[in-house]
Amino acid sequence: MPTRKWNRTAMLLLFVLPALAFYAAFTLAPAIGGTLYSLTDWNGLNPTYRMVGLSNYVEAMRDRFFLKSLWFTFKFVLFMLVFQNALAIVLAVFVESLGRSKVWFRTIFFMPNMLSLIIGGFMWMFIFTRVFPYFAEQTGWLLLDQSWVGDPQYSFFSILALSLWGGVGYLMVIYIAALQGVPQHLKEAAAIDGAGSFRLFCNVTLPMIYPALTIGVFLTLNGSFKVFDAVYSLTGGGPGRSTQVIAINIFEEAFSFSNRYGYASAKAMILFGIVMVITVIQLAIMKRREVRA
Question: How far is the CA of 155 from the CAs of 2, 80, 129, 149, 242, in angstroms?
Fold first, then answer.
């Protein structure tokens, strides 16, 4: 019996080994290396460097541009967390309420997720700079005739629009799968008891898809904190540094301005710590809600 159990364990490990090797080589090893480099003054080029301890971390927490990018990223994450999940749920309910045409609508809403946000950024750049002014001229809607990319007052919303366009479809598919798993007899029983559509969704459907909501919030948090391509393709962090997120700040510190690879690694580790703490708290809270639901 122990031999059979050992053989089964060895077989499972054999199947997992290729994926584990790739994960260790391309995820764990760079992460460990980044942690070590964050304690040095390496510039990314010279073969020699010296250990500086926690001075990179101390400098990062005094860096006003880094702190400003941190605040902008938190604001972006908050908006994405609310709007992306809310829109995804609304679209999922809408698509599921359709008949045979729901396959087409599901494909249409999911298609932006198949494109790189760099390409999507160029498309939306054309919309913001050419299409919106044209429509404003033809219709008289002056709200559309704004500097959506060059004005800090509006550039945040242009980045938000691009990110929502690219990410809502993926979460919609997750929520559609969850909606299809809601038992029909529960809906019928609630309808017999006189529950309207809104109360039916809030009291029956939403608690049943709460595990999918946990996944959606988790994916939104991780993706939003690491946002790079949407900002880089639209504004590049500008005008000035008004739309600079943490990832752009780290990228510029490592590769554009001073080639301070060790200092950039320290900022990356701070970002990792923030995402890890928030994710652990989010999963702990929402998992408890799932049990009660």
Answer: 63, 15, 12, 5, 9
Taking residue 102's Cβ as centre, other Cβ atoms within 10 Å add up to 14
CA distance 8 to 140: 71
Cα separations in angstroms, 208 against 179, 200, 204, 288: 8, 11, 6, 14
pTM, rounded to two decimals: 0.88
**3 state SS of 58:** helix
β-bridge partners, 51: 40
Q: Give pLDDT tens digits along the chain (293 positions).
A: 466 777 788 888 888 888 889 988 888 888 898 889 899 888 877 788 888 889 999 999 999 999 999 999 999 999 999 999 999 999 998 988 887 888 888 888 999 888 888 888 889 999 988 888 888 888 878 878 888 888 888 899 999 999 999 999 999 999 999 888 888 877 778 777 777 777 878 777 888 888 899 899 999 998 999 899 899 988 888 888 888 999 999 998 888 767 788 899 999 999 999 999 998 998 888 877 764 54
Q: What is the C-alpha radius of gyration for the chain, rounded to an integer number of angstroms? A: 24
Token pair 């799968």: residue: 177
CATH of 63-292, picked from 1.20.1440.230, 3.20.20.140, 1.10.3720.10, 3.90.1300.10, is 1.10.3720.10
